[in-house]
Amino acid sequence: MANPLAEPLNPLVHEPAPLRNKIMNSLRRAIETGALEPGTRLVEKDLCEKLNVSRTSLREALRQLQAEGILTDLNNRGLTVTTVTRSDAENIYRIRSVLEPLIVEQFVENAPDDEVQALKAHSEVLKKAYLGGNAEEIVASKRDFYDRICTGARNPIAFDLLKKLTLLTSPLRRRSVVRKDRQSQSIIEIEAIVSAILKRDKAAAKAAAEKHVSNSAISALRPSEGDAKASR
Amino acid sequence: MANPLAEPLNPLVHEPAPLRNKIMNSLRRAIETGALEPGTRLVEKDLCEKLNVSRTSLREALRQLQAEGILTDLNNRGLTVTTVTRSDAENIYRIRSVLEPLIVEQFVENAPDDEVQALKAHSEVLKKAYLGGNAEEIVASKRDFYDRICTGARNPIAFDLLKKLTLLTSPLRRRSVVRKDRQSQSIIEIEAIVSAILKRDKAAAKAAAEKHVSNSAISALRPSEGDAKASR
DNA sequence: ATCACACGCTTGTCATACAAACAAACTCGC
DNA sequence: GCGAGTTTGTTTGTATGACAAGCGTGTGAT
Predict the structure, then answer these.
(1) What is the mean pLDDT of residues A65-91?
(2) Range B173-194 burial, b when 16+ CB lie within 10 A, else e
(3) What tens digit of pLDDT does each residue of A104-149 get?
């Protein structure tokens, strides 16, 4: 049998990749990695020079990111990287704690056996990444894991929402991933999800998914520092 | 006692309302009311002339609506009003059926008594609107009802998501609102939600909210016409 | 020290221009 | 008549330059 991890040779969409998309990806990446911290002011002219693009394209990209909630509009004084307050973060985790169980449920309903097998195989890779301890690798592997579940669930809309929500809390998550205790706990939780999925046990899978989000929330929100000014 | 329906004299935010926001509202409204049907191609030059704005501002508004999912990008051939496939609609209702119970739960947790009373009072207005049968009035009143719940829940992020999701299915909902049988059913379901909220009974309120979404879904998806081409 | 004013920086909006992608019409050879 | 290739027109993508308006800050006068 072929390696179930192998991608089915993606059709290679000949994406013309408009400039604004590249800009968006670049900025998203910067926020995700922490190169742009929450609260940073984004000055159009500076960004144009740094990215070497025209103001037109840049502004279109900014508008799109703004609509995604990643950037916040100060009234007439430009954009900043959205600062997620504690209350925002709690709300985001609360939303995730109903959305992710839904996705897992739909995965059980809709994913064909080969995707289930591939997920199982990938969960082993993820586990190894956790044990390896390389943060980069963990994050990448976990994202891949999520992608598989969301794709298998056949609910692209929820997938989209989740991507945006998790991006908003990426500053929090970055701190939480490096915690050793959280890592070993994550492994257990994920294995619970996978094993329930293998049995096609919807209720158990949902419960495991919810537990996983709840615990992530606890870990991410633990520091309990006073929350900053309002968000939007 | 003062009329609990009275608004507390909103602070009247001096919104400079950038042109692009007006454009967005205008387009959103057009889609919501059906003036722009799903699948309609949006040609920049035409819109500029109709709205009497420059291409720059228009394009920024379009990008923002695109990020919200209301507009879909054909590769290099412009934007269309997003066509929601049957599968998309099912997924949207499925998401709503977990999000709305969450919101209702948070309303029970967080809304102060006066907001609960105001909600109760408004539910009577909504009921009258249903009995009156004027579609415009029903929609407006129902939106107001939802706004109160979402605001009271203190979860602006979920509020935002719900607004976007419901806008996507507005073509479906428009057809469903006029159904007499659905209307009387709606009244009952909403009263169930309100009465559970009054008792501050989280579990019952959640259950009632979920039931309401499920039934809305059944009604909206009933026609069961073959779904069109892919969405995005 | 305070108030008012002026200046600079930044965003909001517009007009214009040109390249590139795409679709449709059109032409020419068979 | 018909198909292949070419031309043409429409539409989007990107860049540039310009100017008004909003906001913050510094300066100067009192």
Answers:
(1) 94
(2) beebbeeeebbebbbebbebbb
(3) 999 999 999 999 999 999 999 999 998 887 888 888 999 999 999 9
Mean pLDDT rounded to a whole number for chain B: 89
Taking alpha carbons only, the member of A132, B133, B68 closest to residue A140 is A132
* Domain limits, CATH 1.20.120.530, in chain B: 86-221
SS3 of B40-100: the string is: CEECHHHHHHHHCCCHHHHHHHHHHHHHCCCEEECCCCCEEECCCCHHHHHHHHHHHHHHH
The class (CATH top level) of B86-221 is: mainly alpha
- Looking at CATH, the fold of the domain delimited by B19-81 is given as Arc Repressor Mutant, subunit A (1.10.10)
Which of strand C's nucleotides are less than 7 A from any protein C-beta?
10-17, 21-23
Check CB contact of B75 with chain A, cutoff 8 Å.
Answer: yes
Distances (CA, A) of A180 to A176, A191, A225: 9, 17, 21
Q: Which residue is nearest to nucleotide D16 (CA to C1')?
A: A54
Instruction: Tell which strand D nucleotides have any atom below 7 Å from a protein Cβ.
Output: 11-18, 22-24
Q: What average pLDDT does the segment B32-56 reach?
A: 95
A64 contacts B70 by C-beta, under 8 angstroms? no
Residue B59 CB lies within 7 Å of the nucleic strand D: yes
Which of B91, B99, B150 to mutate against chain A (most A CBs within 10 Å)?
Answer: B91
pLDDT confidence of residue B6: 62
- A223 sits in which H/E element: none
User: CATH 1.10.10.10 in chain A, residues?
Assistant: 19-81
- Are B162 and B213 in contact, with CB atoms under 8 Å apart? no
Q: Is the CB of B229 under 7 A from strand C?
A: no
Q: How far is the CA of A141 from the C1' of D14 (A)?
A: 36
Average pLDDT over residues B59-81: 95
B81 DSSP β-pair partners: B71
Model pTM score = 0.89
How does pLDDT run across B139-173, given as a tens digit for each residue? 899 999 999 999 999 999 999 999 999 999 998 88
Q: Is the pLDDT of residue B227 over 80?
A: no
